[in-house]
Structure formats: structure tokens, C-alpha cells
Amino acid sequence: MANYMSVETLKFLMNNVHDLNEVLKAERYADYDAESVDILVDSIKDWADKEYYPYFTEMDEKPVVYKDGKIIVHPQIGKVMKQAGEQGFLGPTFDYEDGGTQMPHLVQAGLNHILEAANNNIPGYIGLTSGAAQLIVNFASQELKDMFVPKMLTGEWGGTMALTEPQAGSSLSDIVTSAKLNDDGTYAIEGQKIFISGGDHEYCDNFVHLTLARIEGAPAGTKGISLFVVPKHRPTADGGLESNDVITAGDFQKLGQRGYATTHLVYGENNNCKGWLVGAPNKGLKYMFLMMNGARIDVGMTATSTATAAYHASLQYANERPQGRKMTSDGSKDAAAEQTLIINHPDVRRMLLLQKAIVEGSLSLVLEAAKQSDFAHTGEGDFKEDSHDRLEFLTPIAKTYPSEMGRIAINNGLQIFGGYGFCMDFPLQQYYRDIRIMSLYEGTTGIQSLDLLGRKSTMKNGKALQLLGKDVMEAVEAAKTYDELKPYANKLAGKMQEVQEVMMALLPHAMKGDFQRFLSDATIFMEYMGTLVIAWQWLKMATHAKEALVTGNLIYISDFYESKIHTMKFFFKYEVARTSGLKDILLDPEVLTILKEKELIS
Amino acid sequence: MNLLVCISKTPETTAKIGFTDGDSKFNEEGVQFIMNPYDEWYALVRAIELKESVGGKVVAINVGPASNDVVIRKALAIGADEAVRINAQPQSAMTTAKYIADYAKEGNFDIVFLGKETIDYNGSEVGSMLAEYLDLPFFSYASKLEMDGSKAIITRDVEGGQETAEYTGSFVLSAAKGLAEQRIPNMRGIMMAKRKPLNVIEPTITEDLSVVVKYELPEAKSGVKMLDADDMDELVRLLHEEAKVI
Question: What ipTM was reported for this prediction?
Fold first, then answer.
């Protein structure tokens, strides 16, 4: 069996740490129970073993190419899209009446983890098609739903989100793609979109691009952006398809994820591109953010899973590769002794533990966000609102921590391979290249950090941050039940007190209107908060592991639980300790990154 | 067609294997179980394919405790119509075969399927014993099964080639690779599975004739040895003296 993730860890996190049964109590999820989720997890692992993992290297070696006006992708993409439709894995969280199976987000996130770890080139095609269909389901008319969604959910048609333009990347207020009302109520679309993931290939009959554009006369900036359904081919009255003047102008050749098409689309070059308005005019960005927020959590999961697969590859290598000899008690080495496996060297163990701490901590965080998404969807009253606020706060961290720290984890994994890690014969170089995009797309780390400090930490007078503090203190109290965990619980409680100190130092800048200063070290704040949030997740994991060991309610072997506690200790010693330095930076009044009178970067 | 498929659980392939009670018993603590792949991928799927093409019913049967229900549910999710669990801890191939035979005798089944072996104990015994108890012919290691009206055409892998047999009437068949292709259950199938009947029946009384005395693990393998690509002499020496493969 392919070894790229741990089903046991995933189930432990879903069932124990994140209490799947509590999520399943909602009426919406009445058809699910823990046993059916267990079967789902095992079945998706079988699917990933068979249809995803074997093609991981091949998709890198034979990347997507643009030839004769066509995007050529690996044929396995076509097979998997069809299977995803047959299995109900396109739009699984949708309502039954919209063609879904009302799957909890927590479960979907867990299943995505398996697929992303097996081959991070493939799930984006499925995820974007589901996400585009979700926008139509949520905001478009019944006519548009009937026209587009059914074939997207069978995998016959693909879906994308088309935001970026050559001159407008992070700054969506600058998009210029135009929409002009036609006599028949559709809009004539004209413009260009770039970096459109999964934007075209020969294995889908059509592509449905959820496109941001400006209606003639719309206000400037983000308040004048509308959302349109712009298919590559438009359906005809007789059930056929005709060209909709959407030209695929190329595919971007990339550092990583080379099996995942990244296209350049040109709309309306022959003045014959029609778009259908979704919802109300000028509300496009608001609608799109429904998809964007989900997509950000998905990116966090892709990063987590890519780094997870790298960790398992490193672990296997460290358990097989003999190199060097153990030191004797006088500090010398016996050259005649048999070589020892590299996993026995403390520095290699440190790197493996760092990988494990980052990837399993990240996985727990992304599942936490998914759980809050479920509660925000199915809860009521204050609980629903609180869950939504928690989700809002955690989303930029769930996107950024796995993307940034996952890269560091893979870097350490590559180091374990020594020179072989730099060679194409081993997979670490591919994971290293693949994860690099995660801190760029769906909002860069800089954008996420501005969102975390500038919006999420201050929204509703800091309510989300207070909710986090409350959640962390609950975890601290639970951990204190066990003597072994008390020192770590106390340490985290102390660190959360320091967060208040940091906020008290930063907020006055905003209150004085100096937002540039307030946000100048937002990325440092992200790193600081991200580390503490992962510490919270590790404390929860360790508490559940300890509880299983103490009560003897062991679903897995005892080593499994002990390793969770051990890794929590590692995270606190090696990673939480770093937050002191980050706090010092945040509290330091000296400002070096804001342009003053004279340019000092030369 | 009325089809019975015997399914058993086996440890997940990466599970750490250990023994208790003086190495006479498999230690199940902390072990995750899956459906035996030969039962699931080939026997069950081929039975479902036959049902889908000619109609009828597929019943999955398992011998084991209530903790096996998750494995049985997977069989229902893949497409079995109903399931039966004989509520007994499997002790040996003989008792398992006897329990199933006592149920199958009453069921008027056209074909009784099972995998060629389980991937843990590798006994390959239940099928032949079951056929004996049911007084039916047994086709083992079948890699192909086609129906021509009421006649079954069975292809078996034999050393260096294939053997084809034809039979009209009920029989027991053990499935090998090639009989069908693994089928991943879909979301709706998994959710529907808990609405399908899973009947639990008590076992008949059967006495075991043999007792397992001891299990032993194979000797641990040492780590991978990396050699200079040009050092063929050393490679040959290691393959000869250490790996003992040449």
C-alpha cells in the first residue's frame, strides 16, 4: 500500500480531537454516522492509491503543454474527473436537491487530505469545478443552475474561477474585463484572464468560467465588479454546444504542480462571447469570496497534504538508509561496526519531528476550520455566529501556516535525503517545488497577513480573537487534567497573555490612523499567531492521546498515542519558543520597512 | 441469480503484527482491519456484476463479532443487497466453513463466492471445505467467470497457462486476480448501506479438530545497503552471501 499519509492520524483527528459525532448531530447530516465516514475514508484511500498516487511523478515528468491551440493534460485527469462524478465527489457538500450528498465540510476536508497527499496535481480540477458549481447554486437563477450545474457534477464539464488579469493580481479593484448588456439579457464579455487553474483540457466537453468583470458604467474599484457565468461553449436550444468565443491562449509553465493546467483565457476576441450575470450587478466580489474562503482553506489542505506526503517519504528513507555509526560512550566511532540507520542520528530525528509537528499540526488546524464551517452552516443563534467568526479568523491562518511552514517541513525532509534529495530520482524535490505555489495563489501570505491583523483581529471589537482565547483556555484546562501535560498547558496560557500585550502595542497605531505602521509587520504577526494556534492544536491532540492511554480506550497501538504527546513536546520546545523572538519584533518601536524621506534600498 | 459472497476481515497491510498467549494467538490490539482484498475486489465485485447483468440478489456473509460490522457495511456500500453476520469468533477454516455452510444450505444459492485466500493466514482452506459441506463442486483460483444461459464458464490460472471449465448448476468459486476490477463505493452507496439489512444469526455448534500452537514472525530485514554503481563484485557478493538470492 502506498505510504503518503496516515489514515490513523486522520481518523484520530476527525473522530477524537474534532469530535465528528458532535458535527453529525445536525439534522442536515442525519444520513451520516461515524461508521459510514470510516468507510468513506477507507474507500477514498483505495481510490487515491489506485488512481492518484501512481501518476504523481509522471504528471511532473510529462507536464501540461499548450500545443496547436489546445491544452494537453495527462489522460488520467479525464479518467478521474469521470470517476469523481460517478462517485458523487463533485459538489458533495451541496444539498440533496442540488445534486450533492450534504457531506459535512469536516469529512470533505479529511477526504481531500488523502487525495491531495496522493497527488496534488489532480484534486484542483475537481475542487474548482465543485466551487464554480457552488457559486451558481448559491447565487444564480434556476435557469442558470439547470443550464450548467448538472453536467458539472458529472464531471463532463469543468469549472474555474477567473479573477486575475495581467495587470490585476492581488489588486482585484483594477480588473478591466468588460460586460455590456445584450438585447437578449446576456452580456458581451471582453477581456483577458490569466493564471486560470484547470482552465481547459480535452477531457471535458466544456468549461464554465465564473468570471469577474465590470458592467459598463459600474463604479470604480471593488464595488463595481460583477460575477458572470462565461462558458467556453454555450448550450444551444437543441441540446448541443456552440463556441462562445473564449480562446485558450496558452498554458503557464511552472516551477511545480506541472500536471495542473494554468491557463490564459481571452474573451470576446471576435465580439461573440456571452456571459450570464450571477445574482445582482456589482456584487460579484462578495459572491466570489464565498468560493475564495473555501478555496483558501483548500489551499491550506493542499499544502498540509503535500508536506505530509514528503514527511512520509522522508520517514521511510530515514528508516532504510544506513549512514555513519553510533557514537560510543567516549565520543568516538567504531569504524568496524555496522552502519546505523540515519533515523538514529539526533539531528535527523529533529528534522523528522519538525516535519511531523508541522504537518499534523497543520492538518488539525485545517480540520478545525472545516468543523467551524459546519457549525456556521448548521448551528443556530449565537453559536452559529460565533462559529462563523471563528472560521473567519482561522481562514487566513489555515491557508498560510501550512503553506509557509509546510515548505520548511519539506526543506527539512529534503535535507534528510542528503544529495539524493536534490536529485530527480527521489520525490522530495517535486514536493518542494509543488508547495511553493501555496503561499502565492488564493491570496499571498502578505495578503492573508493583512487580512488577519487588519480585519479579522479587529472585527467586532476583537471578538474573534477573544473567542480564540476562550477556546485555547478550554484546551489548557483540559490538558491540566494530566500532570505530564501541565507544563505545556501553562506555557500556552502564558503565551496567550502575551498576545494581549502585542495587540495593545499595535492597536494604537490603527486608532491614530497610521494603518501603514499598524500593518507593516502583519506577516510577522501571522507567523506569531500561526505558531500559537498550532500549539493549541497540539495541546488538544496530546490531551486526547493521553486520555486514550490513561483510560485504555486504545483504537490504535499505544506507540501511536505516545508519539502524539512526544511531538507536542517537541513543538513547544522548538517552535513555541520562537514566538518570544517574534513578539520582540512586534513590540520593537523601531520601524525599518516604511519608506521615509529617502530611499534606502539600493 | 442468488449469489452468496463470503467476506472476511484481515489486518490492514501496514499493521504491526504481534502475538499473545505464548505466541499462540494474534494480538488484535491497536490493529486496523480491512475487508480481505480477494473477497472484496474480485469475489464481491464479480457477484455484483452478475447481478447487474442478469438480475437476482447478492448476500454478503461474514463470521465474526459485532466489530466486523464496519467491514460488512462496506460490502453493502459496494453493492451487496443484504448481509448476514454469524455471531462467532472465527477459530479455524473448518468451523468457519461449517458455519457458512449451515446458513447456505437453506439459501438455495446458485454460486457461493469467496476470495482465493485471506491475506493474513493464507490458508485457502475455507472454499474447499465449504464445497464439501454443501456437496457442491469447487472451482478454485478463478480468474474469469462468464455465464452462458445457465452454464458457467470458468477460467482458472494454472502453472504456465490457463484452464477453462464449464458447469451447469450450483457451485463454490474462489476468486483470484482478474475475476473483476476493484470497485470503489460511491457516496450514495455508502450512505444507503446502513439502510440495507444486516442480519445477525447465532452459529451452529461445531467442534474444532485442530489447535494453533505457535506463530512466528519472519526474521527482521536489515536496512537498504547503498553500493557504488561500479562495484559489481561487492553487489554479487552481497546477493550471494547476505541476501542469498543467487
Answer: 0.82
